[in-house]
Each structure stands twice: as C-alpha cells, then as structure tokens.
Specification:
It is a single chain. The protein has one helix spanning 36-46; strands at 2-5, 15-19, 25-29, 51-52. The protein has 65 residues and is α+β, with helices and mostly antiparallel strands. A four-stranded mixed β-sheet has the order 3-2-1-4, with helices on one face. Strand 2 (15-19) and strand 3 (25-29) form a beta hairpin.
C-alpha cells in the first residue's frame, strides 16, 4: 500500500508511505530519482496500482503487492 503523506509545514518535501507486509513502514521522498524504493513506487503507480491520498482512509490489511 502506498499513501501520500501531507508535507510538514514549512517544507516542500513530499513523501509517500509504504506499508510493508511485515508490518513495518517505509517513507520514500518523492524527489529521490535515484532511490530504488521511489523507482518501485513509480512502477507500481504506472501499472495502475492504487495510491491513497493523504486524506484517504486505507482499508485494514492493505499492502503493496
């Protein structure tokens, strides 16, 4: 599951939160073009994967596949 996170006030950094199958969370900066986690996010999104907005509720148990 990928979910956009509201930027911290006073910054322009946007991040996406990834819920991992092992229960951990990874935060990925959206401006890190050489970051492999960011590249995986772009691929997931391009293939039609659901990316939840910062204000959207995420269903329980939702993870990236």
């Amino acid at each position: 599951m990928y979910k956009l996170v509201t930027p911290i006030i006073g910054t322009e950094i946007q991040i996406v939160k990834k819920a991992n199958e092992d229960g951990t969370t990874t935060y990925i900066p959206l401006n890190a073009s050489d970051n492999t986690d960011y590249q995986a996010f772009l691929k997931y999104q391009a293939e039609g994967g659901k990316v939840y907005g910062a204000d959207e509720e995420v269903p329980d148990g939702q993870t990236s596949q």
